[in-house]
Amino acid sequence: MTQRTGTGRPRAVRMSVELPLWRALTGYRILTLGYALALFCVNYHEYAHPLGAALYMGVLTLWMLLTWNKVSAPERCTRSFLIADLSIALGGVLLSAVVDSAQRVDGGAATLPSIWTGGAVLGLAIKGGWRWAAVGSTLVAAANLVERGHPARDTVHNVLLVWVSSIAIGYIVEVARASERTLARALQIEAATRERERLARDIHDSVLQVLAMVQRRGAALGGEAAELGRLAGEQEIALRTLVAGGLVPPRGTPRQLAEDAELVRSTGTPPRLPEGPCDLGALLAPHAGAAVSYAGPGTPVLLEAAAAAELAAAVGAALDNVREHAGNGARAWILLEDEPDAVIVTVRDDGPGIAEGRLAAAEREGRMGVALSIRGRLRDLGGSAELLSVPGQGTEVELRVPRGSEAGK
């Protein structure tokens, strides 16, 4: 999972699906030791060699006092500890046949460690998975059969119960660990991808500075360079309006747009952005011109300012692709739709379309306009960008932002 830091940047938070199991195992070992001691005290006088049984129970109690917190965390529970823990459990099971009477053993009396033995097997299951659990439970089963001397029904029942449950828990732990690793890796990839996309957009926006420089140098040189500078200035105004002043509805005339762009260019600071809902139609309408037609509802289409800016920027990127790849004579149409559960913007052109595999090839070559400027923005908004292109029949890009998405709140 991820959390927000004080700076607003996401950070990864380590999750451990097995930590509750270790804590539960600690409690299990303590409680079952108490049960085994109580059972021993109640049946003390029925043992054939009660002092020998008491000596083992003392050793078991001392072992627990020294190692009670060994299974509270995976780093403390080492392989050598698990082997020693299982050895003490097996020793207690085998010793029961020596210190207890034959009548009690044949009658199915509990062994000295009793159900405490299950804690040693469960430790193997949580630490090493189902394979370690299978080995540990098999050894415990063999010790119980040796202690009883013959495979009685209750002994077989208890042995199978420990064997099946420990292996099942070990398998579940392995699956949980694999899922945890997969989730952690996915979160790392997502965080790295979003950061790369953010940097790529910042680099893409730096093109504004180049366009401004071309405009100034072209005007100074005159001639054909002046025409090139004029075109660069128009592109800069359109792009800067989206990036820097896109949340402020344009005032409409080219001269006023140029004054706004010059103000942003000279100060380096975008205009103060409004808070609250923003009319998306006001941001898309300035794209209309001789080669671009715009159609939208007669009423404002309100989105939160950040979501409206990102969606308008994605539309601008789609129109940039039309101008760059569809040819000088291509026309484009923008359709804004205000649905109850989503805002949909469709950008369509009558260009030659996109050849099959061209987008994938562009991404491999590092041209990330569609992947980052369009799909990346919509993904950040919780929306989607669908691209449909038929060679010779143009391209259609459908941008959908659900209302109530986190980015739009």
TrEMBL record:
UniProt entry tagged with the keyword Signal: no
Annotated SMART domains: HATPase_c
NCBIfam families (alphabetical): HK_morpho_MacS (NF047322)
Domain of life (superkingdom): Bacteria
Identification of the protein by name: MacS family sensor histidine kinase
Membrane-traversing stretches: 21-45, 51-68, 80-99, 119-143, 155-173
Segments forming a coiled coil: none
UniProt keyword list: Kinase, Membrane, Transferase, Transmembrane, Transmembrane helix, Two-component regulatory system
Organism classification: Bacteria, Bacillati, Actinomycetota, Actinomycetes, Kitasatosporales
MF GO annotations: kinase activity
Keyword Transmembrane annotated: yes
InterPro entries the UniProt entry points to: DUF5931 (IPR045975), HATPase_C_sf (IPR036890), HATPase_dom (IPR003594), Sensor_HK_TwoCompSys (IPR050482), Sig_transdc_His_kin_sub3_dim/P (IPR011712)
Alphabetized Pfam families for the sequence: DUF5931, HATPase_c, HisKA_3
Domain Histidine kinase/HSP90-like ATPase: 306-405
